[in-house]
Structures are given as structure tokens and as C-alpha cells.
Write a structure and sequence with these properties.
288 residues; alpha/beta; 12 helices; 5 strands; 37% helix
Length: 288
């Protein structure tokens, strides 16, 4: 458990799931931005980072991206092989080291990082393809670490699962997963009907498995449809309050811009075929 005050427990930060302590000072609130890909987690993290007292790191568990901080960098610095990243005690030791208050500026009141649904698994690629098996692939040490350290889960959700799929396809097509340009290009994708329903079911299963994974942990939900619309400022206020911070003058901001139309008819080249394929199914509601 994170202690609000006190000294670092014996044994340093190399023991898995040990306490993070604050060396006699108030420790920052810890949080993770948790969600499926294309649900607004990057936008939310960038807005949090505009707050002078909040810091949100990127996806620290990504194995193939050179970013800092990350498990990859942490292992490299110690001369350890990368395969150790799938060892539960290694992941929690990394987090304990990352959030040791000796390494955190006293000006920071809340600190966290992004983590996608599948990254809570020890085998992320398999968990992404088979979300129903997530329970079997879970990292129990990480969940224990989150619980004992009272980490707030900021759960990003997107109600329209078809738009999650379309957003991913558009980003993959252009190679631009995030943009600072305000322009909305005339971009369309063709959706394979054969794989459409299985892919929508996979997103649904992933969300269900994620809810089970974080059940019982302190959680605040942020809906993409609200956050990118009229409810954005209200959601920012909820987030700041949950993180123990006041909203700065001018609110939270982000340089990121939406680069595709929200109208599915504008982005799906074979929209009529997709609509016919989903008509009468539980996925029909996503056609709006």
C-alpha cells in the first residue's frame, strides 16, 4: 500500500508490490488512463498534461517503442534482457521505481500513465486477439499493485464500437494515429463484411473483460462522445477533482485535433453494404 507519510520500506524498490512511500512528504495521487485503442485515451492524457500539477506518461509497457519512461528503457539501463518484461515482479518493480517520490518533482500533485486493455496482460498481442481469454492471461501482481497503491483508474470508453473500428482503420491507412492539424481530410475506408461482426464482438468482449479486471478498484469513467463534445469541460472538472487538483484558469487543453469526419457515411466507402450487413443485429445501433 502507498503510505501518505513515512520512510521507504526495507529492501528498496526491487521487491514486487512493495509499498511506495513518500519520505515524509505528501505523495502524489497515482492514476492510470485505461482503455481500448481509439477511445480518446491519448487526447485525455494530453489534456491532463496541460495541467501544471498533473503528469501522465505514455504507454510504459509497450515493448517495441523507444520512449521514456518505459519498461524497455528500464531493462536496457540495467543491462537486463527484454524477455523479462513478461515477468510480473519485473513490471511491478519498474512501477515502484517509476513512482518513487524521490524521482517526482514536489510540484506534481498527480502522476500516472496510459495502459491499453491488452497491456494489463502478460501477453498483450494474444490478449488483443483473444480478449475472452484475458482472465487467463492477467498479471495478478500488477492488479495487486494497483489495489495496494490505491491507483485511480481513469477508464476511457467509446459507446459506438463501429466508430472505434473505423477510427483504427483510418489511422492505419494514413499512418497518422494522432494529429495536431485541424484539417478533416476526405478519407474513406472499405470495411470487410466477413470480419466485421467478429471484430465488433471482440471489442465488446474486450470491454467486458476490462471491467472485470478493474472491478473493485477506484474508477472514474470518461465517455468519448461526451469528452469530445459538449461535456468536455465538465469531464475535465470531474477528472481534476478525482485527482485532487483544481481546474487551471482557461481549463485543460490539447494540441491534438480530430482528423476524420464523425459521420460514418463520410468515412465508410461501402456504408450501404455495412448497414445492410448489421441490420437486425445487436450492432445495428452503431450505424448512427
Amino acid at each position: 500500500m502507498i503510505e501518505r507519510r513515512g520512510a521507504l520500506s526495507a529492501g528498496g524498490c526491487e521487491k514486487a508490490c512493495e509499498s511506495i512511500t513518500s519520505h515524509g512528504t505528501e505523495r502524489p495521487v497515482l492514476f492510470i488512463v485505461f482503455g481500448h485503442q481509439r477511445t480518446g485515451s491519448t487526447l485525455l492524457a494530453s489534456r491532463l498534461n496541460s495541467h501544471p500539477r498533473i503528469r501522465c506518461h505514455e504507454e510504459v509497457f509497450l515493448p517495441s517503442v523507444d520512449s521514456s519512461p518505459s519498461v524497455k528503457e528500464w531493462l536496457d539501463v540495467r543491462g537486463l534482457p527484454q524477455w523479462l518484461r513478461v515477468v510480473p515482479s519485473v513490471r511491478t518493480s519498474f512501477l515502484t521505481s517509476l513512482f518513487d517520490v524521490k524521482n517526482i518533482s514536489g510540484d506534481i500533485g498527480a502522476i500516472g500513465f496510459k495502459v491499453m486493455y491488452n497491456q494489463l496482460s502478460l501477453w498483450p498481442k494474444f490478449a488483443y486477439l483473444m480478449p475472452g481469454a484475458t482472465q487467463l492471461l492477467q498479471d495478478p501482481a500488477l492488479r495487486k499493485w494497483l489495489r495496494e497503491n490505491e491507483v485511480l483508474i481513469v477508464h476511457t470508453l467509446r459507446q459506438n464500437h463501429l466508430k472505434i473500428l473505423v477510427s483504427h482503420e483510418l489511422a492505419a491507412q494514413s499512418g497518422r494515429f494522432h494529429s495536431r492539424s485541424a484539417s478533416v481530410g476526405d478519407r474513406k475506408i472499405v470495411i470487410s463484411l466477413r470480419s466485421l461482426k467478429p471484430r465488433l464482438r471482440r471489442i465488446q468482449l474486450a470491454e467486458r473483460a476490462a471491467r472485470n479486471t478493474i472491478k473493485g478498484l477506484p474508477t472514474i469513467e470518461i465517455l468519448y462522445e461526451s469528452y469530445t463534445g459538449a461535456g468536455g469541460a465538465r469531464d475535465d472538472a470531474r477528472l481534476c477533482d478525482a485527482l485532487g487538483q483544481s481546474v487551471p484558469a482557461g481549463g485543460l487543453t490539447s494540441p491534438l485535433r480530430k482528423i476524420s469526419s464523425d459521420n460514418l457515411r463520410d468515412t465508410i466507402a461501402n456504408y450501404e453494404q455495412v448497414a445492410a450487413h448489421l441490420s437486425g443485429t445487436r450492432f445495428e445501433r452503431f450505424l448512427v
